[in-house]
């Protein structure tokens, strides 16, 4: 049964003949060009996803990963809309709930979140291959989903591309100047005065206690720390392995990404080898879309985002096919 208004039904509890194939619900025809059905799979039968299948077969598919703790439909159902749009272009897809998210259950594994996410993605690729016959897949994610896809890609040569929305980003001096400019335009004088005086007071207290300003502690999301050089080299290595990337940055993260040339500028400043720079030019596309917010709230923003990703997927799958 298709997902409607964020609600889902779980597939019927029939036994699976094989782990790779998964249990499925009866297909629901959403459009003359494709149908959808729920699937249950994974080593522990705990993963739930929605499979969208076009009428004709394809060699490449798409797997949509959770954004944070949001259900597999994606922010404001954008993954549902994008999956159906690419199905009209002939690409099958799977909207996946990772372990412990959405409709998927938990496991007894104790080797860490990233190891479990990797197993989930591998199981999803296995299932999409078994059900649709695709040979390779594009991993698409927003925020944490983008970073999961990036971390997984080197471990599986079936990954044909990455769509990363508001994933890894790196500020430069221009980013910082624009960030302060944005703050100054939105702050009133009383608020600015209070902020400056508060900052000075904290510095005085820190000096009185015998130490300087305490650096901000980064939040640990269980993912490896990636520097700008790591990211540039990593993207380049993925391109050379046949895995190009499409990076999208929205207007919701202006404090860390706020101008169209930021990715290119930070990569130029990073100590990358010549072959890495060539790979980035040839295999990485980056769009700054400040009119779109992180959770794809507006219908206009959704249409723009879907059209951009759809065009990139058509280009990549045509080149790969």
Automatic annotation (TrEMBL):
Q: Where is this region: Disordered?
A: 1-29
* Entries under SUPFAM superfamilies matching the protein: alpha/beta-Hydrolases
Q: Which Gene3D superfamilies match?
A: alpha/beta hydrolase (3.40.50.1820)
Pfam families linked to this entry: Abhydrolase_1 (PF00561)
Q: Which InterPro entries match?
A: AB_hydrolase_1 (IPR000073), AB_hydrolase_fold (IPR029058)
Where does the AB hydrolase-1 domain start and stop, copy by copy?
Answer: 81-176
Recorded protein name is AB hydrolase-1 domain-containing protein
